[in-house]
Structures are given as structure tokens and as C-alpha cells.
Amino acid sequence: MNSSNSITLNVLGGGGEVGASCFHLVLDGYHVVLDSGTHPKKDGIEALPEFRLLHRAPDALLVSHAHVDHCGSVPYLVRQFPALRIHSTLPTVRIMDRMLHNSVSVMELLARERGILEYPLYSHDDVNYAMGGVRGHNFEETFPLVEGGPVEISFHHAGHVLGSASILLKAPGHTLFYTGDICETDQELMAGYSLLNNVHVDTLIIESTHGSTDNSHVRPYPQEALRLGHAIAEVLHQGGSVLIPSFALGRTQEMLNIVARLQEEGVIPEAPVFASGLGRAIYEIYNRFERYLHPDATLRPLDQFGRIGNVWERSVVRDLLAEPGIIIATSGMMLENTPSAMIAQEMVKRTHHGIFFVGYVDHETLGYRLLHSEPGELLEFSLGAPPVEVKLRNIQRFYFSAHAPRTSLRSVIERLHPKNVVFVHGDPPALAWMKEHTANGYRTHVPMVGQSVVLEA
Ligand SMILES: [Zn+2]
Ligand SMILES: [Zn+2]
């Protein structure tokens, strides 16, 4: 029997991995789910959290931000529990709606092209129904988990992407802080996180993405932006175009404004800048919620960036590359058949272009194979189409992160000084490093998916 000050944490996803984040908590008799993502590297039912471990309807689902590894399975969970109450920040409500409808379209495409019979896992109607149950909140606003109940919730600025939040849960005998994805430094548009002050935290659930990355040699964001600017300028001067594969939420909006600023400053010569569809749709939400960005940030009007068009038509891509330009397109890791892959497929046949990766590139992806390709290597950009010989050599990696480096993660722990620290959202070496380098005196946990932990206050 647990004491009334204890919390039970059941990890449904995102334990021992950067997977489908989903954490089920039982506190003070209430059942809460933190995030409900899909696994970025898995397909079909496999990509879902372990929902079968939920034995009753949760009292609420709290969504930290709109990346699909945190919200991609929300409509699926709502189909199981149609009365589920969902809470997130106001911008996240809007972005989640766009991301989930896009997920339906992607799943429909994968069903056709790869014969994944389980897809789509939910329909556009399911997304609309689920979104009807979401309540948006301002940062720092306190609201009850259940009307009239004793558990209080608030969202806190996490600095990762627009609307991203860390979540504070205050039950009578236990206070829990879930970081979600956090970034402590300022980006081009986002201000770094503001950590809680004067709050006593019993349990901290902390992301560990960069736990195995030694960040002491990583250049600060503005310096890396300048390095990227010089590399872009060099390609444009020789008459080529630059492709920057980017995630639709966060990196695309950051890159568009970095490029525009460097053009204004004369680092990058005048040339048209293009952005792909979902990134544009989310840009409009950035525009609407501009007050959530860094107070000094300049968000350029979206119409100053051109549309890319239907890149699955070869003639559209050829026209796009006819004159020097800068193209910011999804997906960030260049998965096959996505806009960035379809554009790269034409670019790699020539030697005067540049392809610059600016985010995380998993080693099982086309982007990774292209980054590490040998001259003349054959790569498949579009499933079913013949492979293409890679003649282009100017393929580089730049380092822009929207996640806190491990030194900052450690200082989050020291500043909040909780009794229990639970490390999640990291590869096994990252989680191991974090646990090993946390000072004595904390109860540390690295639970796997399917495991439960009882946390005492
Ligand atoms: Zn994220
Ligand atoms: Zn994440």
C-alpha cells in the first residue's frame, strides 16, 4: 500500500529511448497522462505508446508541446476514452491540430505506398473530435486537474518551440515537475526556458536528449548561424541553390528568419527563399502568437518567402533549381518521398549546389546516408524509383539544437533539488550518463517502457 504522499509512475512510452512520450501517473487517487506521442522510428501500431496498460479512463491528458513524439497518438487515445479532457498551452492547441491532420495525410500515403495496413491509425474526423476536447491555457495559469479537486496544474515556458511547456502538478502531498523538451539558450525566435522559482519539487521527470553529447565544443547558436550563412553565400556565388532540410515545427521558422536576417545584414546575397507547406502553415501560427516569442525577435511576414509547389513533379523541382535560391523543406532527416528528398534527388546530380542539415539526423535515415555518402554512390530518394548517383560533394551538417545540453540538464536538477529524478526521452547512453553524473542524495530512476516506479515525497 502506498502512502498518500506517493505517486505511481507507469511509463507507456519514452522510457529508455526517445520514443512515443507517454507517462501515466496516479497521484492522490487521480489518473493523469503526460503526453501521448508516436514513436518517430516505428510504423503502425508499434509506433503507439503501451495504451493497453491503462486500465481505466484517465482524469486528464496534459500535452507539453506539438511535436508528434509528444502528441501524435492523442486522437487514438481519445477514441479509446472519448470523454478524455486534454489540456495544453494556447499555441500548442493550434499547432497540434495542424500536426495531427498532417499525420493523417502522411499515414494515408504510407498505407498506399508501403502497404502498412494499420494506417491511418485515426482519421481527420478523429482529429476534429479529439481537438474538441482540448482546453488551451496561458503560461503560468493555474487550473484544477478536476473541477473542485485538490490537484493543481500549470504550464511553464520551456523554450523549445512555440507553445512548448514544462508541466507542474501540485497534489496535496507531492509536487511533480515534468520538463517536456527544454532549451535553455535563446534561439532566433524562441527565448530560453524560465525555470521555476521558489517552488519545492518532490519529483522531477526530465528529458535527456543530449545526455551523451559533450557540448563543450559546440558553437553558440548565433555563431553557428553565421557559419551557415557563409556556407550558403559560397554556394549562391557559384550559381547553385541551397537545400536546408528542416522539421516543420520549430526549425523551419527559425531557419527562415536566420536566412532573412543574414540577407538583411549582407552576409547572404539576395536570392529567393522558399518554404514547404506544413512549415508555412505553422509559420502562420507563430505569427498569430508572436507575443510568445523572444521580445527582441523579428518574425518576417510569411509572404516574403516563396512557395515550393508540387515537388513530386520533376519539372517543378527543375524550375525551382533553375536560378540560385535557398529552399527550406521538410522532412528534417530527409525521409524518402518527402519534399526535401524529392528536391535533393535532383540536386545531387550536379556539383554546384549545397545541402545543409541543421537538425538531428538519425543513422537509419536517407539524410544520414547522404551525409556519409561516397562520391558516385547510388541512393534511393523515392521508394520504388531507380537510385540516383550522388555527384554533389557539398553536403554538410550544422549544429542547431532546441534541447538543453547535458550541463544545463544537470543544473536544472541542482536548482530544483527534488527528491526523485526520473530520466526519460534519451538514448540508452544519454540516460546512463545523466544517471551516473547526478550527485548523490537524489533517488534516480531510468524506467523502461512498461515499468512502474513508486515515488515517495
Ligand atoms: Zn520536441
Ligand atoms: Zn521530444
Please name the defining characteristics of this protein.
Rossmann fold, alpha/beta, seven-stranded mixed sheet, 457 residues, binds zinc ion, globular, Metallo-beta-lactamase, Chain A
Question: Can you give a write-up of this model?
Answer:
With 457 residues, the protein is an alpha/beta fold. The chain folds into two domains: 7-214 and 402-455, Ribonuclease Z/Hydroxyacylglutathione hydrolase-like (Metallo-beta-lactamase, Chain A, 4-Layer Sandwich), CATH 3.60.15; 219-397, Rossmann fold. The protein has helices at 68-71, 74-80, 90-114, 124-132, 221-237, 251-264, 277-288, 314-320, 339-347, 366-371, 406-416, 428-436; strands at 7-13, 22-27, 30-34, 60-62, 86-89, 134-137, 142-144, 152-157, 165-171, 174-178, 203-207, 242-245, 273-275, 306-307, 326-329, 354-357, 378-379, 388-389, 395-397, 420-424, 443-445, 452-455. The chain has a seven-stranded mixed sheet with strand order 6-5-4-3-2-1-22. The protein has a seven-stranded mixed sheet with strand order 7-8-9-10-11-20-21, with helices on one face. β2 and β3 form a beta hairpin. The two termini are 15 Å apart. The mean pLDDT is 95. One zinc ion is lined by residues 67, 69-70, 181, 425.
CATH superfamily of the largest domain: Ribonuclease Z/Hydroxyacylglutathione hydrolase-like
Number of domains: 2
Bound molecule types: zinc ion
| Strand order across the largest sheet | 6-5-4-3-2-1-22
What does the main sheet amount to? 7 strands, mixed
Radius of gyration: 22 Å
- CATH domain class of the largest domain: Alpha Beta
- Assign an overall shape: globular
The end-to-end distance, rounded to whole angstroms, is: 15 Å
> So what's the oligomer here?
single chain
- Put simply, the count of helices is 12
Classify the helix fraction into a percent range. 25-40%
Poorly predicted regions = none
Mean pLDDT: 95
- CATH topology of the largest domain: the name is Metallo-beta-lactamase, Chain A
Give the name of the CATH architecture of the largest domain.
4-Layer Sandwich
Instruction: Return the structural class.
Output: alpha/beta
